[in-house]
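Before going further, learn to read the protein records used in this course. The integers have meaning only within a learned vocabulary of local backbone shapes. To see the layout at work, look at the sequence and tokens printed below.
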Amino acid sequence: MKQEQMQWHITSRNSGRKQKLTAQQDAKKIIINTIQRIGTEEAIDNCVSVFNIESDDVKGRIIGREGRNIRAIEAATGVEIIVDDTPEAIILSCFDPIRREIARLSLHQLVSDGRIHPARIEEVVAKTKKSLTEEIIETGKRTCIDLGIHGLHPELIKMVGRMKYRSSYGQNLLQHSREVANLCATMASELGLNPKVAKRAGLLHDIGKVPEDEPELPHAILGMKLAEKYGEKPDICNAIGAHHDEIEMTTMISPIVQVCDAISGARPGARREIVDAYIQRIKDLENLALSYEGVNTAYAIQAGRELRVLVEADKISDQRSEELSFEISHKIQTEMTYPGQVKVTVIREKRSVAYAK
């Protein structure tokens, strides 16, 4: 009996030594096999959309008398409309893809309908925002069905849908998350772990990048808190929070998500850091203006070379508008890094509405 036990210990010790010697080689083999089995579509997200029109006569109707229509579209959507000599095309410029899509869909409906005037523009933009929200939810549902993920909270489904209109270092966030989910499932299967749990964690690992309000937290920690809030299991929450080493990994799924995230982002041409830095600068410009009392909305246009600030007429006087433009420009000059110069335009508009009954 003792001889058999001794033999077992020797065999076990030899097996452990062999595993240590071959661990790195086996890990490389699993990673390479996983990469080879999962295809990808590399997508670079731009800050410009082209809106095609049937004839150049439509350009005049979009501009409107003395440019009133184009100003109304820009004010309602926060997107810069560039009308130049390009035949049968108008350029929509904005760092936020959701805003750009709202402007594109609104223009399409306005041109198809034929009625283009400021009141109609505001009505169509409001309807378009509502329909785009529904489209975002539908995209989230379709993604979950395609990946075979069930039981997600409705708010998490909405966040998955919002990924379609966001980018991470120039890489489309929804495509990146789908790819990470598939990579995680494949790698988990190779290691004898639950592929469904790994796939779920892979899809949700970047949800901290897409909430409508953006608190000052690292996206991994924010994503973990959101997952906890909406009832995800602790192993999935840990995988989300630990994929950039902000917290300690406590499950085997966590390193898989981290590795697969790195694989997806490291593909040649998948990411451009310059795009992310540019978008962050534009967001900081808008947030700086919104920090002042009485500011209703702020839009950074012309690639961040102009900042349009819309203020509430009841709270801000004409004199205060002038002071505000100087204060904002001075704060930009002292606190931000930017190429060239930034033009700050403060717009104060008084509207009086009455109804004849």
Observations:
- The beta strands are 48-52, 80-82, 89-93, 167-168, 171-172, 295-301, 306-311, 343-348.
- The first helix runs from residue 2 to 37.
